[in-house]
Design brief:
241 residues, mainly alpha, Tetracycline Repressor, domain 2
Amino acid sequence: MFPDRDTLVKVESGTDLRRTTSARAAGHATHPEIPRLLPHGRHRLGREIVATSQHDRLLEAMAEAVALRGYSATTVADVVERAGVSRKTFYEHFGDKLGCFLATYDAAAELLLAAMAEAGGRGTDWRARMDASVRAYLAGLSEHGFARASFLDVPAAGDDALARRAEVHERFAVLLRRIHTAARRSDPTIPYRRPMMFRAAVGAVNELVTEAVRTRDVTHLPRLAPVVVEILDTLLGAPTS
């Protein structure tokens, strides 16, 4: 009853969704076939491969820098130093610091959605798939370095970042609505919910995770799974077992 992978996001063939380093999570996990570190001196790598490697490393570096310093204190110099590229290369990929931050935020969202799709596809029924997806979401946040960038530093990045977060929240709300629709097909006792209820559920989960990221180590995030599942279960109106 859970949406298949294409409903959520198309997972690239061969992508390793279990990468656990903060660097690779935000960027390089998107292109695992691209070398992270380029050879010194002359090499035969094509221009496109070089550009992709540089782009991924810049996303990785932004995630790391924001995790350590926060968005406001992070500079382009911090990012290029961590990425091992020049300022000229940075501006070939992004117009400014905000553009790099938004690209990192987008990469994090795609990684989480893909991980949820991967985990949710293995459940035996819709509730088990929802539980698996929630746990994959929280595990991804706890294992990778973009939790702070995704939850604490978006307001500091301004209106464009807030608008991007609203778009991502809407994607999660649409996902919940599809899960709910599929669940009602198999269990007619599950009541109809208005569309805004799904946005409210996303907001509730976001508030819960934000507070956890702010006050505790991100490794504790998987412990929130039972509460998050209860919130979503209540939204779905499913009978508790």
